[in-house]
Amino acid sequence: MYTLILLSTFATLLQCVIAGELTRNIHESPFGLTFTPSAVLASRYNVSGLVEVTRYPVNSKYQTYYDEAVHGHGLRKERRRDDHDESAPHLAAVALFRHIVDPITTDLNEQLEYEPTYATLFMPSVFHDDIIAAAGEAVFGRTSLERPIKYGPSHGATCHAYDFLGCKHLNRAPGECNWDGPENLVLLLEYEKDYLYAFLKAVGFHLGTYSVTAQEICKGCGERFREAS
Q: Domain span at residue 220?
């Protein structure tokens, strides 16, 4: 599953390089962070044009946070308050992710001898939007719109690995890959230890997006349940 997300991360990082979001060396890309259930992956293109991936284990507090997200996913949430960004739960979530990301930044800084720049952040799809926003604030700060970045759930990243927006792997003629062409739907299966998540996504050529038209999670269909049987 996360091989595809890494491919999407690399594609996005390359776009950031082209757009001008560079580190001190013009041939190096900024980093992408991918949160998995058990680790954070920091990846980039280095000066040789090769892909570097460094794995950082997560702490027990994050693991508990993730387990609770799996258990609570799909349950009714309270309406978001206008002061949500200053609420105690939001600030606690930001602090949690900063506690994870800051040591990664320190380690990368020691390796590179300059502070790393982050351009992408992908999170497990069981995290709701408020949690992903808290992680985004922890990584990018509140001034993230000042530079090109991409962050969101993993299901929003995976499709980019296949370049459906480039009319690839759709069995369509180039002239059909536009806003008034035939509808193109992609079935995405996110298979994790604790769940199987299915998404039906529409390829939106005019907006450059993959919108979710249907989704369903099975919390008893993950890899660990197959092992138990």
A: 168-229
